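forwarding from the other thread:

> can someone predict this with guanosine-5'-monophosphate?

sure thing
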Amino acid sequence: MDTNAALYGDLERILVTREEIAKAVRELGQKLTKDYAGKEPVLICILKGASVFFTDLIREIDLPLTTEFMSISSYGSSTKSSGVVRILKDLDRDITGRDVLVVEDIVDSGMTLHYLKDVLRTRNAASVSIVTLLDKPARRRVELHVDYSCFNIPDAFVVGYGLDYDEKYRNLPDIGVLHPRIYTK
Ligand code: 5GP
């Protein structure tokens, strides 16, 4: 809590510390290294929320992987899913025959990834798996198999470590519950 004092003041509480995140990301990297041994997976970062997680995770995976970046609209500046999913930035390269890992910051209703998995399947990937830092299973509105998840969290709006509210708080090193007074102003 030594840095970003102004931002930390907007949190109700810290949910996952930077130390817990680092440990979980390291362990996930080791698991993916084993599970994808002998393969050259392509990891897709879902912008912008997964960017911090993504850049930490790829450095914990000891494989000849490649990276792609995709941008999808889901939240705008509100804290409820609109259900509207649009691809704002698509992949740069073909993924035919590739083992794909979609890297997300958080699975909430599951609608974004449910849609995205369908899109990627039509592009003839060899496999498509979902990797998420956070999961809110209680909020699921569609059936979605999450292959790798670091933390299950309760139904609360969280920010930090890449996750935003109105584009802010992404630079917090820890993950915290945003105080409702911030979005009920
Ligand atoms: P879903 O389609 O699963 O409902 O929503 C996934 C997206 O919603 C995430 O990628 C993220 O952008 C946003 N989201 C869901 N819950 C939270 C949350 O607690 N905090 C933040 N900052 N974004 C969230």
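The mean pLDDT is 92. thats all i got for now
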